[in-house]
Design a protein that fits this description.
293 residues, alpha/beta, 2 domains, 5-stranded parallel β-sheet, 3-stranded antiparallel β-sheet, 6 helices, 16 strands, 25% helix, 17% strand, globular
Length: 293
């Protein structure tokens, strides 16, 4: 074997915050990949930690089953599923935002830390966001920051994070409005986007006192490569690479977040990167003594 492409994806293992180790065993802790339906959970309320795509969908489903749900919200990206008669992903692609190369990104580390979009993929393409969840009775709190036994403390940052998400939302919609006006396309008036009206925010709760028996850690994923016995990792355990080309000759990666473009980790964006890596890989195999760097 002269070359290998690591295409195991960007989301490998659940990322569970360290505060989970401080929580009483009386509280069941679960991650989304181990969840199937609300009936498998212990009786009582559920704290869902994480308000990106997975977190908001689980919060809604569990809440609809009749269980009280508290949603712990950190940084998030709010977008409508449909806007001006088109799917929001159609607009992002139309504006060139998904194909934006890393060379044009001002702060690549910050871009790579951006949370996934608050979108769901149901056939009716409906919008689900914090405003909708609060209207359904889901209680919103800030990011889970500390824990001890049955108590959890939340950052008092819910207003700040939702305001920041609102600003990002309005910037994206303004770009779409300008594009629609300049092209004379999609004359359909934009749907109104409801504002989020926050209720009083709890900064610390006792899970047992609140009747909460389960914590769902919808806090994203991390990657590990225990099987890759090469000195190709940075201090965070990520494979060093330049657009998918690793410093070790013949080693490549594919599907990582913002690897070459914003959509490098998307199903419909990985193909572009694969074509570029295929060309580099072909040159490497044609010249076996040439370093793949």
């Amino acid at each position: 074997m002269r070359a290998i492409v690591v295409a195991t994806g960007y989301s490998d293992r659940p990322r569970i915050p360290s505060i989970a180790r401080q929580i009483s065993p009386r509280i069941r802790q679960i991650v989304p990949r181990a969840y199937r339906n609300p009936q498998q959970l212990p009786q009582g309320g559920v704290l869902v930690a994480g308000a990106s795509a997975t977190g908001i969908q689980l919060a809604e489903e569990i809440n609809r089953s009749g269980r009280p749900v508290t949603l712990s919200v950190g940084s998030h990206t709010r977008l409508p599923r449909l806007y001006r008669g088109r799917d929001i992903m159609w607009w992002l692609d139309r504006l060139g935002m998904l194909a934006k190369p890393v060379a044009e990104v001002r702060d690549l580390d910050a871009a790579r830390r951006q949370p996934s979009l608050q979108l769901i993929g149901t056939p009716e393409r409906r919008t689900l966001d914090l405003a909708g969840l609060e209207g359904q009775g889901v209680r919103l709190v800030g990011r889970a920051a500390a824990a001890g036994d049955t108590r959890i403390r939340f950052d008092g940052d819910l207003a700040d994070t939702t305001t920041a998400a609102e600003r990002r939302l309005r910037r994206v919609l303004a770009k779409i409005d300008r594009a629609a006006a300049s092209e004379g396309r999609c004359p359909i008036d934009p749907l109104p986007i409801p504002n989020l009206i926050l209720s009083a925010e709890a900064t610390e709760i006792d899970l047992i006192d609140q009747g909460i028996g389960t914590i769902m850690w919808a806090t994203g994923y991390r990657r590990e490569y225990p099987w890759l016995k090469l000195d190709v990792f940075d201090a965070q355990g990520e494979i060093l690479n330049d657009g998918g080309v690793c410093p070790y000759p013949g080693l490549y990666v594919l599907g990582l977040n913002f690897m070459r473009h914003r959509s490098s980790s998307f199903l419909d964006g990985v193909g572009r990167d694969a074509e570029a890596l295929t060309a580099h890989l072909a040159m490497f195999l044609a010249a076996p003594h040439r370093a793949a760097a």
